[in-house]
Amino acid sequence: MLGAPSFDLITQPWIEVLRDDGRQDELSLHQLFVQAGELRRLVGDLATQEFALLRLLLAIAHDALDGPRDAGEWSDLWRDDRCFDPVGSYLEAQRERFDLLHPTAPFLQTAGLRTAKDEVFSLNPLVADVPNGEPFFTSRMPTVDRLTFAEAARWVVHAHAFDTSGIKSGAVGDERVKSGKVYPLGTGWLGSLGGVFVEGVTLRETLLLNLIAAETEAIEEAATGDRPAWRAEPSGPGGSERTATGLLDLYTWQTRRVRLHYDGDGVHGVVLGYGDPLSSRNMHRREPMTAWRRSLAQEKKLGQSPVYLPQEHDPSRAAWRGIAALVADRTDREQGTEAASHRRPGILEWIAELVTDEVLPRGFLVRARLIGAAYGTRQSVIDEVVDDDLAMPVVLLHRHDRTCARQAIGAAEDADLAVRALGDLATDLFRAAGSEGEGARSAARELGLAAMEHPYRTWLATLGDTDDPFESRRDWQRQAHRILSLLGDRLIASAGDAAWQGRTMTGKQGTYWLNTGLADTWFRTRLSKALGHPYATEERPDSGPSDVEPPGHPGPGSTDPQQPSTDTKVPA
Prior knowledge:
34% of the residues lie in helices and 14% in strands. The chain is of the alpha+beta class. Among the domains are: 15-186 and 218-274, no CATH class; 403-531, Topoisomerase I, Chain A, domain 4 (Orthogonal Bundle), CATH 1.10.132. Strand 7 (256-263) and strand 8 form a beta hairpin. The relative contact order is 0.09. Mean pLDDT is 90; it is low at 537-546 and 553-572.
């Protein structure tokens, strides 16, 4: 094999990173683990690539360290600046399987993979930032002719995780081939999840915080023989119906069969087909990096209960508004003997164990990163990539002290209810002027949510430092009231003469005259119902009486701001 082409991922730079000083760099696997404490984070071509690469690194770390076994071992790693030293010798032992161009066992590929016609396809399907049929939305317009070996390695990892569904060319030896094709079997494994991981200050902290101990309640313990893809036999062209044995298997799951075609200058083509399918149903005790929701439809169809499916990310909903899915404990959601409607990610259950056992201090700040792909046209294209984060003190995850978590959830609900009031004001102003107000409602709600986002995130980050979470919640309500009152003032000031003059309306209480003044009064009433009266110790200027009650109400879940709920209901 003398002179055979090789691209050794252990020593050749291929993973992009951001250093503490803001410089971007490209490192080999060995360099990355040695320098992890000096690096801020991974940097992928897409956020989804960053997520897929992180799971690859976690599989290496878990396997090299043979653990951690429990929280005690994890604590030892956390205090040891050289905790990843064993990774070097581990990678050396696995060197042959980390060669991207190996003749018989190329990294995460199937040697000799071919179609019946020996076709070699363009790299477009491999590179996720080239939307099929939408070349004007990519920096690689109109096609990907060639990749460096480093780029190709990153996209191979990404393909197993996030590749689209759709009809794919069938490989020789794959029993699923019909008329030269394999019909849709779903996206890569991570494509079915609403990805969540915990980010620390450095890459070293990020790797450790996501390094879940074997003996934990957060996830099911791995079966005997759990191992990553590079310690298993190389995959053949077909697929298998087995399920994952543990984190090592799951983090390197081969949902695709890939073979790169290359020359001395880089990669110029690919054969990409389906690999091992994996059902996400009731994987909540095995897959830790997504939240889960009960599916009543699946329970009815399958005749079993409960059935949990991954809770995918909604690109239109910011992370702070979905905080309940991240911090609400299972016991917060259960109703008697009824199973919880949602379950938070296992990775956050693991952090909850660390803070409950006082391995991490209550005030320690972590950042929950939310990454996922939103697919379109029968999952054959990626429409959007979700990349959001939420910094929060770990006390919110404490299993026995739920006060801060419930107030954080309640505060997000406060903001949502109050923003509805702003939307109602916009609608009323348009109705007073004789126009339809649904478009105005949506625009006002977007304006209100945008104004709430930064203040809420700032408030949340300091919640762990407070001695009185209830008073902190009241402070938040007063702050939100001020912000939305000002936005309401702007909407009112911009209302036209027709809205100021008003018109006759008919409601449940009879006819009434709706103008800007009445719309303003209704808005203040709704806002106070959602957030409480901001003038608890001083007299509030009178907005004037109203004989007509505002239609609608702030919605379920509102609480008396003078007595914030200690057991806020989590929305299903």
